[in-house]
Amino acid sequence: MVISSNKFLRIHGGIPDEIPPRCISSQFGLSEGSNGIVHLLVVWRITSMILAFQLAVFALIATSSILLISVPVVFASSDGWSSNKKIVFSGTSLWIGLVFLVAILNSLIS
């Protein structure tokens, strides 16, 4: 069975040694004479921002879940509010900060 080079690249995600550099630059969307380093840095920055956004959204969801369970438990316990007031306020402050962080990161990547 013979596999064409394009199909090989899609299956394995790598670049074989036999492909000349001009084909590699066209594979990544670079034109002749363009600065490939700048293009790769921009792609890396966008990927990093998307990863940071996803982590911030995950942290917001995790914090929301923890607060959803812990705040009613604190209010229902007999001496819970007076002893756990600082923890509830810290969690709420963290949640508000994460909401603003997600909003800022969302505006940067979209």
UniProtKB/TrEMBL annotation:
The keyword Isomerase does not apply. GO terms for cellular component: chloroplast thylakoid membrane; photosystem II reaction center. Controls the interaction of photosystem II (PSII) cores with the light-harvesting antenna, regulates electron flow through the 2 photosystem reaction centers. PSII is a light-driven water plastoquinone oxidoreductase, using light energy to abstract electrons from H(2)O, generating a proton gradient subsequently used for ATP formation. Keywords: Chloroplast, Membrane, Photosynthesis, Photosystem II, Plastid, Reaction center, Thylakoid, Transmembrane, Transmembrane helix. One of its GO terms (biological process) is photosynthesis. It is found in: Membrane; Plastid, Chloroplast thylakoid membrane. The lineage of its organism: Eukaryota, Viridiplantae, Streptophyta, Embryophyta, Tracheophyta. Belongs to the PsbZ family. This is Photosystem II reaction center protein Z. It holds the Pfam family Ycf9. It comes from the Eukaryota. SUPFAM superfamilies: PsbZ-like. It comes from Enhalus acoroides. The chain crosses the membrane at residues 50-75, 87-109. PSII is composed of 1 copy each of membrane proteins PsbA, PsbB, PsbC, PsbD, PsbE, PsbF, PsbH, PsbI, PsbJ, PsbK, PsbL, PsbM, PsbT, PsbY, PsbZ, Psb30/Ycf12, at least 3 peripheral proteins of the oxygen-evolving complex and a large number of cofactors. It forms dimeric complexes. InterPro entries: PSII_PsbZ, PSII_PsbZ_sf. It is a multi-pass membrane protein.
